[in-house]
Amino acid sequence: MESPNSSIGQEKEGDQQPREFPIPDEIDKSKENSDHVPLPSTSQQEAGTRHTITTEPFQPILKVLVDLERNDPDQNLEQENLVLKEAGTHLRQKRDGLQVQHNKQLSQLRFFEQALELSQEKLTSVLDNWNHFSSLNFARLFNEERQG
Predict the structure, then answer these.
(1) Residue 118 pLDDT > 60, yes or no?
(2) Which region ranges are annotated with the description Disordered (predicted)?
(3) CA–CA separation, 13 vs 53, rounded Å?
(4) What are the residue ranges spanned by the domains of the chain?
(5) Contact 22/28 with Cβ under 8 angstroms?
(6) CA 105 to centroid of chain Cα atoms
């Protein structure tokens, strides 16, 4: 009985001990796992060739698209929009400043018109008085010369 028990024990011990040389079945399995790259079938190769043939005329367009993606046109568009917004803000501020200046000039012009009208009325009044006074003096002088 000892011999059957000892042979089973030896087999178990043998399984637990490391082996110096791998078993051929294990070598085949490890190769399958590491080198498991399926070879393309002829239909896959034909599909790749068709894809190349169909995309070939569009290569210049695809290059432009790649360049556009690389240059990030959205960022350029955002920057251009920001520049345009700043320019618009600057122009609105300038327009508002010019409008304020125009309104000031209009109010000054109205003030000068009113002042000119008042000056004209006063000057006319002074000249009327002068004419009346001088005509009286002239008439008196004329009468004195006649009498004299």
Answers:
(1) yes
(2) 1-56
(3) 63
(4) 71-145
(5) no
(6) 38
